[in-house]
Design brief:
This protein is an alpha/beta fold. Helix content is 34%, strand content 16%. It has one domain: TIM Barrel (Alpha-Beta Barrel). Bound molecules: flavin mononucleotide. Flavin mononucleotide binds next to β4.
Amino acid sequence: MKDYQKLFEPVKIGAFELRTRTAMAPMTRSFSDNETGVVTDDVVEYYRKRAAGGIGLIITEGTVISSRAKGNPGVPGIYTQEQIEGWKKVTDAVHQEGGTIAAQIWHVGRLSHPELIKGQTPEAPSAIAAEGMVPRFRKPYAEPLELSKEDINRVVGEYAQAAKNAIEAGFDGVEIHGAHGYLIDQFNSEASNKRTDEYGGDLAQRLTFMKEVISAVIDAIGADKTIIRFSAHKVDAMEYRWEDADQAIKTFTDAFREVGVKIIHPSALDAQENFAPGRTLYDLARKYWDGPIIGVGDLTADQAEAALEKGIMDVAAFGRPLISNPDFLEKVKAGRGLETYEPKTHLVTLK
Ligand SMILES: Cc1cc2nc3c(=O)[nH]c(=O)nc-3n(C[C@H](O)[C@H](O)[C@H](O)COP(=O)(O)O)c2cc1C
């Protein structure tokens, strides 16, 4: 049996006091009430089981900040009182099991369709439709409306309100979903942001919207409770990578320092992939960031332990293994085999 000294070490990052240097990566499961966006009792038990398994930080599935922020059926929200009350059951269950939990706050931007958002038109930095189909909906992405400056102020306010609502619901903090081609990443990316105002231009300029969202969330709940997730790859362009990853990470981390965010969660599909010669995303992140880094991407426990030991991650996040193994960490500790993640079997029930 291997001794995972780092993985099972307690750690404090910001206000999050974690039992182990592990996190459950945010994963959309689509088991909330589709009409109201309220989590069901099955969702409560799903998170309770992962907390009982000893995970350090649970980051919830993407949770939408407004009715227009939604892009998949059955995702939960955090903008109505009924949704807040529902989440209280989840946070209570996780805390009863000694866990810590952050809500991932989410706006999908153009990756939606009017039929998912009560007839509204999706909103995005520029009026350019994404290529492809809405997942689990089989309709093409709609052409979005370009957000005006006034709309941007409203949406930034919705992120801040969602963060406040998360604290009211008993969450220990929030993760801002700035990754994977959704609204914030649509501003960050040259493919979806053709604006000529202060929100468009070179990468540093395109990060303006993200900075405004982070600042508003920090003002609402504090930097110690705020995590920012970002990535190169996008759900509508999985192969997309920054042309110069070293420079991109420098630009992102400069922006993060400017707004005072403390905890970053760069998202890789494969944490071992080189983003620059001989350097993974996490080597690059550490080059420019002294503060806490959450790492992710097809990690095995051995790879996570090595990355923690090397100091390129402070917390290792696991996604799919935690869907197929609620007791993932117990199995790792005991040297027991893991159940392989099979989308066809594991995505259709919430266990
Ligand atoms: C079913 C599923 C749903 C996901 N939903 C989200 C999400 O809501 N928000 C997010 O930031 N990432 C989401 N992801 C990405 C995961 O957080 C994670 O980065 C990815 O699965 C890689 O980690 P893994 O290899 O350990 O699974 C999802 C991944 C899966 C498999």
